[in-house]
Design brief:
- The chain contains five helices and no strands.
- By secondary structure, the chain is mainly α.
- The protein has one domain.
- Helix 4 packs antiparallel against helix 5.
Length: about 120
């Protein structure tokens, strides 16, 4: 189970770091061409989501690797799961196509697996 959780943590961490860096740093007009929801979202919210994804991606990996404040790993995973759940709701409300909703659902489930696996299963 530990190996599976590590694989998920690294893959999710890298995915959220990449997505977060893009949302936090790219000019919004360029970003809105790739993600049309950016045009209908306040700029500060888009940047906030990016920063939250960066911090969550770091939180999935760094505490577990260093052994310092390891409680942050399940907290980061739970936070990212919440972000993905909100993203799925946002895209459903906009009636976006399924190809925009399914990746969010997959990331939600994977982040939830890490949150539960690192938060509760390890304690047993």
């Amino acid at each position: 189970m530990n190996i599976v959780l590590w694989i998920l943590q690294v893959l999710l961490g890298l995915a959220f770091l990449a997505a977060g860096i893009m949302k936090a740093t790219q000019p919004l007009d360029k970003l809105s061409k790739q993600m049309d929801w950016v045009a209908v979202t306040p700029p500060a919210l888009t940047r906030f989501i990016g920063i939250a994804e960066i911090l969550g991606g770091i939180g999935l990996i760094l505490p577990a690797v260093t052994g310092i404040a390891t409680w942050l790993t399940p907290v980061a995973a739970a936070g990212l799961a919440l972000i993905m759940l909100l993203a799925v709701g946002f895209h459903l409300r906009r009636s976006d196509p399924t190809n925009r909703i399914v990746p969010g659902l997959v990331l939600f489930v994977l982040a939830l697996v890490v949150a539960v696996g690192r938060g509760f299963v390890e304690k047993l």
